[in-house]
Amino acid sequence: KEILEKYRDLFTLQWEGVIGNMCVPSQAEWEQLLTNCSAFLFYGMERFMSHILLNWLVAVNIPKCRLVILLDLVRSQQSYQRITNSDIHKSCLHTALERPTETAMLLSLTGVGSVIATQWYTTLQENAERLEVLFENLLSYGKTAGQTVHVLQ
Length: 153
What we know:
The protein has 153 residues and is α/β, with parallel strands linked by helices. The chain has a domain of 107 residues. It has eight helices and three strands. It has a three-stranded parallel beta sheet with strand order 1-2-3, sandwiched between helices. Helix 3 links the parallel strand 1 and strand 2. The radius of gyration is 15 Å and the shape is globular. The relative contact order is 0.15. It comes from Struthidea cinerea.
């Protein structure tokens, strides 16, 4: 919340979304957020694709979304239990499509211009630090997504 407040005036007056643990977005809310945005940020637990219906994503076209930032792959005992229970009902192929590289490819195929994503499990603190670097470079300095990723490396 602190990072969003710090950069609020630099990116948009039309910021929409779900912040904190107010509620878990429904599939319809995920769909609305993704299809009506020019940039999408996910900062959360486990795999981003575990929150989205795969069948919906592969059938959708979202060319208005120029940038997706996925700061996911954070694990807690509770999130691990949720994902384990969810994965039981999925095929191996379906679960494989939720990995970072496959997620980026699927988002790209739907029309997303650029995808910035974590590739391995991390902590909320490390993702907060990444978010700070991303916003500072993208919004304060006006760097491109590629230049910003280079800074993160």
